[in-house]
Amino acid sequence: MPRPRLALVPGEPAGVGPELCVRAAWRAWDADLVALGDRAALQRAADAIALPIAFADARAAHVPPGTLRLIDLPHAVPVPFGAPDPRNARSVVDALLHAAAGCREGRFDGVVTGPVHKAAINAGGVPYTGTTELLADDAGRAVVMMLANPTLRVALATTHLPLRAVPDAITASGLDRVLRILDAALRRDFGLPSPRIAVLGLNPHAGEDGHLGHEEREIIAPLLTRLRAEGLVLDGPLPADTAFLPARLDGTDAVLAMYHDQGLPVLKFSGFESAVNLALGLPYPRVAVDHGTALDLAGTGRADPTSLFCAIDQCATLARHRRAAA
To answer: What is the helix (H) or strand (E) element at residue 257, kind and residue range?
Structure first.
């Protein structure tokens, strides 16, 4: 089977993304990486961390260590480390869309994305809520955000909502869509023939039989019963305060949390450095780092590349599974 060919998007040029991509060029991968970004920004990052970098044509079959295949997508203006410029908003977003188009056209088998700066993109006049949402809109697909590390996978029924808006967003149709996408992705992308998903309740103690909330009895439990009849393997609704105990997680392939801070603090505590962010439901694998632009570390050489390295490994694995299932 040919090696997966992955688009590598550095993200915000004033952050740590470019230097992490430079570090990735020095590691051997079971995939061919093609960076989609600004050559000058990558070179500046390499110079700052005193790590040599060379660039090759994106179509190069083999490159030596310390060389990045590159599609040069220049930014509007150069920026100092730690100071995003809204004038670069369009080029940052266009690099992501270029990678997505490459996947649709068969030039790439997956996308690995570095951190972007949402405020700078919006200040540059580009409406932007997140890369997951951007790529979902571009593909015309409903997607599910899932974070994972080597010991735990946590998907989200809702993502970046104010806490007071979450209960209204928990609907039977929404959960049905999320669980089907999650189940299909675990089968296709992770090679799990019958994945077991633990579904958390919304309220403390999963509603305490209706005494602490009605969403479990009226929405979540009936939906799980219906999907189990279709063959999905689902546990729950489970109280979130005990769902992550090792005995409870034994044999579980993923946890579905009802909202962002219900599940992600546990995942990040269990292994933040090696965590990655996946967008499930896209027509191609997309894996991102699970950290921000770290503007205070940019150009210092102290940024930890572990999450990016894990994202590349994970994306390559997903791409191979998709090929095998095709």
So the answer is: strand 254-257
Task: Give the number of residues written for the chain.
Answer: 326
Q: What is the pTM of this model?
A: 0.94
The answer to whether residues 303 and 95 touch, using CB atoms and an 8 Å cutoff, is: no
CATH superfamily of 142-280: Isopropylmalate Dehydrogenase (3.40.718.10)
Per domain, the residue ranges of the chain are 1-140+282-326, 142-280
Residue 109: which of 325, 258, 318 has the closest Cα?
318
Which CATH number does the domain 1-140+282-326 belong to among 3.40.718.10, 3.90.226.10, 3.10.105.10, 1.10.287.110? 3.40.718.10
Mean pLDDT by 10 residues, the chain (326 residues): 93 98 97 98 98 97 96 97 97 98 97 97 94 95 96 95 96 98 96 97 94 96 98 97 95 97 95 94 96 96 96 97 86
Q: Is 113 exposed, middle or buried (0-12, 13-18, 19+ CB in 10 A)?
A: buried
- H or E element at residue 255: strand 254-257
Residue 13 CA to residue 132 CA, distance in Å, equals 19
By DSSP bridging, strand 5-9 and strand 32-37 are parallel
Q: Are 3 and 30 in contact (CB under 8 A)?
A: yes
Distance CA 234, CA 236 (A): 7
